[in-house]
Design goal:
Elements lengths: L7 E6 L5 H13 L3 E6 L9 H8 L17 H6 L4 E7 L1 H9 L5 H8 L4 E5 L3 H5 L1 H12 L3 E2 L3 E4 L5 E5 L3 H14 L1
Helix pairs in contact: 1-2, 1-8, 4-7
The structure holds flavin mononucleotide.
C-alpha cells in the first residue's frame, strides 16, 4: 500500500470492542504516508486509551468539544477543515443513530455534521443490534445521505456468538480508505 500525495484522514473512534482493531488501521495508514488525525468518543476511551492513538498517529487525539487548544473555533471546525476523508470505526449503533438524526452532542457527532468530505463508516455491533429495524433504518438513511459503508462482516462476535455485525478487518478498511482517497 502506498500513498504518494499526503492525504488527510480524520479517524473517529467509537465505543465498541472493535476499537482495538482501529489501532492497526491507524498504524497502517500512517505507515502509508497518510496524515491521520484521531478523534475519540468518550466511550471509545474505555476501550483503547488516547495515548495509543496519539503514539500511532504522532499527534494529540481530539476527544472533547471544549478542549482549550482549539479555541476560538472549536475542534470540530478545525478537524473538518482540510480533511479528505472522515472514517468512523467502529461506527456504533449510537453513532449511526445520531448521524442519521442529525444530532450533535459531542465532538464526533458534531464533526460528522461539519464534515464536507466523503464519510466512510465501519459499523460493529452484536448481530442482534445490527438486525434491529431501527439500526437498519438509520443505515439506509445514511446511505441515502451519501455515506459509504464497509462491512459489517459475518463472523465471531465479542458476545460469543457468530453472525453479521463484526467490524471489517483492518486490511479491508485500509484498502477502502486508499480507494476513496485515490478516487478524489
Ligand atoms: C463491553 C462493551 C462492548 C460494547 N460494544 C459495542 C459494539 O460493538 N457496538 C456498539 O454499537 N455498541 C457497543 N457497546 C455500547 C456502546 O459502548 C454504547 O452504546 C456507547 O454509548 C457508545 O458511545 P459512542 O457511540 O459515543 O462511542 C458496548 C458496550 C460495552 C460495555
Amino acid at each position: 500500500m502506498s500513498q504518494t500525495n499526503r492525504s488527510r484522514v480524520t479517524l473517529a473512534v467509537g465505543g465498541g470492542i472493535a476499537a482495538f482493531k482501529v489501532a492497526t488501521v491507524c498504524s497502517r495508514l500512517v505507515q502509508s504516508g497518510i496524515d491521520v488525525q484521531v478523534a475519540m468518543t468518550e466511550s471509545a476511551k474505555s476501550f483503547v486509551g488516547p495515548a495509543t492513538f496519539a503514539a500511532l498517529s504522532g499527534k494529540p487525539v481530539a476527544a472533547g468539544s471544549f478542549e482549550s487548544g482549539h479555541w476560538p473555533l472549536g475542534p470540530h471546525i478545525e478537524l473538518a477543515d482540510g480533511t479528505d476523508l472522515l472514517v468512523v470505526a467502529p461506527a456504533t449503533a449510537n453513532l449511526l443513530g445520531q448521524f442519521a438524526a442529525g444530532l450533535a452532542n459531542d465532538l464526533v457527532t458534531t464533526l460528522y455534521l461539519q464534515a464536507e468530505c466523503p464519510v466512510l463508516l465501519a459499523p460493529a455491533m452484536s448481530h442482534v443490534m445490527w438486525s434491529k429495524p431501527a439500526v437498519q433504518r438509520n443505515v439506509q438513511r445514511l446511505i441515502d445521505d451519501g455515506c459509504h459503508f464497509i462491512g459489517p462482516d459475518e463472523g465471531w462476535l465479542s458476545c460469543r456468538r457468530r453472525g453479521e455485525g463484526r467490524m471489517s478487518e483492518p486490511e479491508a478498511i485500509c484498502a477502502a480508505i486508499i480507494s476513496h482517497l485515490s478516487a478524489d
